[in-house]
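Sharing a chain and its predicted structure for anyone who wants a worked example. Both blocks are below, sequence first, tokens second.
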Amino acid sequence: MATSFRHVHRGVHGRVPANFNLPGVITSNQAVVHITAGEIVFAAASSVVNGVTQTFKYHVGDAEIWVTNVSPHCNDNFEGEQGGVGYILHVNFDSPLDVAVTITVEDTTPVGIN
């Protein structure tokens, strides 16, 4: 079963390098990680599902938002580094926007690497 984490980036405009540490979740450079991103607006009321509170809702606006360069890492950049994932978040719009990314880590590694 995959594990997902949601993270909010406030006021994003252009190309923004990002990193999210997931110690104990990403335990090797072979981790399979998927990242989605979308514009959000903060809601008047929070929603709670399975004990997790979310204070925003997704909004399909006119901005082009995408993620590239998804790079799992674990102890390969510096000694004692936590497992995590680096990525580039892109927001193509005239003004900065609030964006949420959902980072999903698969529970298995690839069955083959060529």
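Comments welcome. The domain at 3-105 is CATH 2.60.40 (Immunoglobulin-like).
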